[in-house]
């Protein structure tokens, strides 16, 4: 599946060798979730070996759990920026094509613009760090849940301010409220680096592609025409690879017309 990537949390409890082998068998690249590699104690040298052995292209998903790049508490912001910089260095060591970075979220129910300056400062520092080591990064637009507030292109542009003209973005299709929003972002937002692809229901995000509210029959022509890399997302703690198998079947039968 040309230009399609497997997000490693789809095989959370599998060995890293199994993950690479599966991606190779499906003719996919990988988006390597840094937190997962850290959690399972996978050494960077092992990842470098596997990338060379399997000849796979990779993206990286930065640390994001437990972090907040626009936290009101200065020390919390500083730690979040530092941990994200570790992911940038991690990606650079792997030769990754891009690093997905989650923006920060509200600490409490204040007016969201209170956090704009903090987020802008974190973005500026991270972009400078990435430029220094020549590692591409992109900021992800989030789903409208909890204290997330950077949930559409207009908010991201407002927060980015003077950084907007050189900022890259990861568009997560499941984070959009409907097909119209997906197409609006896809066709009107500049500098999209890649797409995260999954479906969603009213209660759950990142469900298999064929199970959810989004109609990919409406979306697939524009998604494919964009030529953007497609990362298949989801989280599966089991060993049967049920979610991945559902996604592979859907892609082969419904999404890519040219596939066997």
Note down, in words, how this protein is organized.
By secondary structure, the chain is of the alpha/beta class. Helix content is 42%, strand content 15%. The protein has 9 helices and 10 strands. It has helices at 16-25, 34-39, 44-54, 74-94, 116-132, 153-160, 179-188, 216-226, 242-255, and strands at 4-7, 29-33, 58-61, 99-101, 137-140, 169-172, 192-197, 199-200, 205-207, 230-232. The strands form 2 sheets. It has an 8-stranded parallel beta barrel. It has a two-stranded antiparallel ribbon with strand order 8-9. Helix 1 (16-25) runs parallel beside helix 3 and helix 4 (74-94) runs parallel beside helix 5. It is globular, with a radius of gyration of 18 Å. The N and C termini lie close together (10 Å). The relative contact order is 0.14.
Number of beta-strand segments = 10
In percent, how much strand structure appears in the residues?
A: 5-15%
**Overall body shape:** globular
Radius of gyration: 18 Å
- What helical percentage do the residues reach? 40-55%
End-to-end Cα distance = 10 Å
Report the total helices: 9
**Overall pLDDT confidence:** 95
Main β-sheet, spatial strand arrangement: 1-2-3-4-5-6-7-10
Poorly predicted residue ranges? none
What structural category do the secondary elements indicate? alpha/beta
SSE order, one letter for each helix or strand: EHEHHEHEHEHEHEEEHEH
What's the main sheet like?
8 strands, parallel, barrel
Oligomer: single chain
């Amino acid at each position: 599946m040309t230009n399609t990537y497997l997000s490693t949390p789809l095989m959370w409890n599998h060995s890293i060798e199994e993950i690479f082998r599966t991606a190779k068998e499906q003719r996919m690249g990988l988006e390597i979730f840094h937190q997962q590699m850290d959690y399972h104690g996978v050494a960077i040298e092992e990842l470098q070996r596997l990338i060379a052995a399997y000849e796979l292209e990779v993206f990286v998903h930065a640390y994001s759990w437990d972090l907040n790049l626009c936290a009101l508490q200065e020390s919390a912001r500083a730690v979040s920026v530092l941990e994200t910089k570790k992911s940038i260095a991690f990606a650079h060591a792997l030769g990754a094509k891009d690093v997905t970075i989650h923006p920060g979220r509200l600490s409490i129910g204040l007016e969201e613009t209170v956090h704009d300056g903090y987020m802008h400062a974190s973005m500026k520092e991270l972009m400078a760090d990435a430029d220094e080591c020549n590692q591409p990064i992109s900021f992800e637009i989030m789903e409208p849940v909890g204290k997330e507030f950077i949930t559409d292109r207009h908010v991201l542009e407002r927060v980015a301010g003077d950084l907007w003209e050189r900022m890259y973005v990861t568009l997560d299709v499941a984070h959009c409220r409907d097909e119209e929003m997906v197409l609006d972002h896809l066709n009107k937002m500049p500098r999209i680096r890649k797409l995260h692809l999954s479906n969603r229901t009213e209660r759950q995000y990142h469900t298999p592609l064929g199970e959810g509210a989004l109609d990919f029959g409406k979306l697939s022509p524009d998604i494919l025409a964009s030529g953007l890399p497609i990362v298949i997302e989801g989280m599966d703690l089991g060993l049967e690879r049920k979610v991945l198998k559902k996604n592979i079947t859907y892609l082969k039968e419904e999404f890519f017309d040219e596939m066997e």
